[in-house]
């Protein structure tokens, strides 16, 4: 019998709440579609630091390598103790250890949400292994440092290989979407060498995909274009930090950051992770929107289906997406970020209920 073994990591802040909601939906999928899912859980973040002195223990990294997929709750890494005291960013460490070079971040307005949400249906494809992120660009030393007390420097690493593979991931994704349009977002007018290299590779990949429309937009102009008319974009490919920021903007335009799922994908591994952080301001109150992580889990099921690991995963993922739309269409089920008074648990149960009904 086919099946998949998933490693589930709760993380910090609202992590335990939204992970529980996601498990409810996955358990329902398993029962409804006979997926043969098995789960393993492990501590990371503050909980792991309390018990074993590090926020990302080595056995967890090994378990992630051994699993078919990972579900990662959000982490409060900016609150952790220094790295020397075991406070590593679990998300960064896992992305690196599993070579999860593509961070796929859809922003899709749920039909029937209404309110101030704009009609958005785009995917940000964000380079995930280098750029301006100091924990990821250890290029002969730390990526960020202070040569003297009054000076701080950060190194932004851009390699041809990383640009090539993120561009290829973006065009492969665009092939499967009706609009078939890729926009490369950059700042090559000032970062001529580094963003210039990124554009070189995007153009080379665009040439190999003549059926896909390709254009280039500056990051600052892109922020304005998104607010004005996000509906005209389809797939956005960009470097790490621009992608981090733009995808939050796109998610919020689509209704809420709490709706935004994401998948960190490489050749061999994939990890579902909500786009947002650990939202410490609302942790423990049962008001977090679990849809972001539920949608991320659906992306993981799709990825497992595409690889042939879990053929029925695609059907389950489609049922989750339909369940999310149906649940959110009911104002009484909406969480406060969507203008409602619903709870994390009730929204997750509503999605699970719709999934069960598809059988
Ligand atoms: P971190 O330090 O972990 O990144 P943060 O303080 O930056 O945390 P985010 O998690 O990035 O916070 O969230 C930014 C804002 O969006 C917060 O006000 C948070 O409450 C809200 N938010 C984020 N995720 C959700 C969610 N799933 N449901 C509801 N609100 C959310
Ligand atoms: Mg944040």
From TrEMBL:
Signal peptide: none annotated. Keywords: Oxidoreductase. Gene3D superfamilies: Isopropylmalate Dehydrogenase. GO terms for molecular function: isocitrate dehydrogenase (NAD+) activity; magnesium ion binding; NAD binding. GO terms for biological process: isocitrate metabolic process; tricarboxylic acid cycle. InterPro entries: IsoCit/isopropylmalate_DH_CS, IsoPropMal-DH-like_dom. This is 3-isopropylmalate dehydrogenase. It holds the Pfam family Iso_dh. It comes from Roseivivax marinus. Residues 5-351 form the Isopropylmalate dehydrogenase-like domain. Belongs to the isocitrate and isopropylmalate dehydrogenases family.
């Amino acid at each position: 019998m086919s099946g998949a073994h998933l490693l589930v990591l709760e993380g910090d802040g609202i992590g335990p709440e939204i992970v529980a909601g996601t498990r409810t939906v996955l358990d329902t999928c398993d029962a409804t579609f006979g997926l043969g899912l098995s789960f393993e859980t492990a501590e990371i973040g503050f909980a792991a630091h309390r018990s074993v002195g590090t926020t990302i223990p080595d056995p967890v990294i090994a378990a992630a390598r051994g699993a078919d997929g990972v579900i990662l709750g959000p982490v409060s890494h900016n609150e952790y103790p220094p790295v020397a005291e075991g406070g590593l960013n679990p998300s960064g460490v896992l992305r690196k250890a599993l070579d999860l070079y593509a961070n796929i971040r859809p922003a899709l307005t749920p039909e029937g949400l209404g309110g101030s949400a704009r009609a958005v249906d785009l995917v940000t494809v964000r380079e995930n292994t280098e750029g301006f992120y100091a924990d990821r660009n250890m290029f002969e030393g730390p990526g960020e440092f202070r040569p003297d007390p009054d000076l701080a420097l950060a190194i932004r690493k851009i390699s041809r290989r990383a640009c090539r593979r993120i561009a290829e991931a973006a065009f492969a994704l665009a092939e499967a979407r009706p609009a078939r349009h890729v926009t490369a977002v950059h700042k090559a007018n000032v970062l001529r060498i580094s963003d210039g290299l990124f554009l070189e590779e995007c153009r080379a990949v665009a040439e190999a995909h003549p059926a896909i429309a390709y254009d280039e937009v500056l990051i600052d102009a892109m922020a304005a274009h998104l607010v004005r008319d996000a509906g005209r974009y389809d797939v956005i490919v960009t470097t790490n930090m621009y992608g981090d920021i733009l995808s939050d903007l796109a998610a919020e335009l689509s209704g809420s950051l709490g709706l935004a799922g994401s998948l960190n994908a490489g050749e061999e591994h994939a990890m579902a992770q909500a786009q947002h952080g650990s939202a410490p301001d609302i942790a423990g109150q049962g008001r977090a929107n679990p849809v972001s992580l539920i949608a991320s889990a659906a992306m993981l099921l799709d990825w497992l289906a595409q690889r042939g690991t879990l053929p029925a995963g695609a059907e389950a993922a489609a049922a989750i997406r339909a369940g999310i739309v149906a649940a959110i269409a009911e104002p009484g089920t909406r969480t406060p970020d969507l203008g409602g008074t619903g709870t994390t648990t009730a929204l997750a149960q509503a999605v699970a209920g719709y999934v069960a009904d598809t059988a």
